[in-house]
């Protein structure tokens, strides 16, 4: 049954998942609940947008089997990297309070005053703001939900990369 799904439809689904995820974060979490995104949250969003953009390019390009594998691998790479950031975020949330790093400056301040490389380094480390659990759904914090989203996306991308295509026969 899964083999009958066209690669274009799978990539459209991945792009749609990224759009829905970003809309949920920006409209519901930020605008409705007034939750501020921490540096690790912002980094995870970059990787959601990256996988969504790659998937959208695949939909537009509609390549043959090798192209589908390349797009699947690139999309998967973005999801794996985002998943690693989300895993770090979850790890920070489970640290004992005495081990949580101190809160740092805002992302806007860092972008205005620090070199880009240093800002990226600080963002990837996370800080005390990242260790705070602001909202849960079904017992999962936002980073845990995002990690689950990245895992599902990675699995879909791996399947897309290694599945057999009619041109392969």
From TrEMBL:
The gene coding this protein: dsbB
Keyword Chloroplast: no
GO biological process assignments: protein folding
HAMAP family xref list: DsbB
InterPro entries xrefs: DiS_bond_form_DsbB/BdbC, Disulphide_bond_form_DsbB, DsbB, DsbB-like_sf
Name this polypeptide is given: Disulfide bond formation protein B
Native source organism of the sequence: Seongchinamella sediminis
Listed GO MF terms: electron transfer activity; protein-disulfide reductase activity
Signal sequence annotation: none
Family assignment from sequence similarity: Belongs to the DsbB family.
Periplasmic topological segments: 29-46
Positions of disulphide bridges: 38-41
Key word Transmembrane present: yes
Membrane protein topology class: Multi-pass membrane protein
Name of one Pfam family that matches: DsbB
């Amino acid at each position: 049954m899964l083999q009958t799904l066209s690669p274009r439809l799978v990539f459209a689904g991945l792009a749609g998942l990224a759009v829905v995820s970003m809309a949920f974060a920006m409209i519901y979490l930020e605008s409705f609940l007034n939750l501020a995104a921490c540096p690790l949250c912002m980094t995870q969003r970059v990787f959601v947008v990256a996988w969504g953009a790659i998937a959208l390019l695949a939909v537009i390009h509609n390549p043959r089997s090798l192209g589908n594998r390349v797009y699947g691998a690139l999309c998967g790479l973005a999801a794996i990297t985002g998943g690693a950031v989300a895993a770090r975020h979850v790890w920070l949330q489970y640290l004992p309070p005495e081990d949580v790093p101190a809160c740092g400056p805002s992302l806007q301040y860092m972008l205005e005053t620090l070199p880009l490389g240093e800002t990226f380094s600080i963002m990837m480390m996370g800080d005390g703001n990242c260790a705070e659990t602001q909202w849960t759904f079904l017992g999962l914090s936002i980073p845990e939900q995002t990690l689950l989203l990245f895992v599902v996306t990675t699995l879909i991308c791996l399947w897309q990369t290694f599945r057999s295509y009619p041109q392969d026969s």
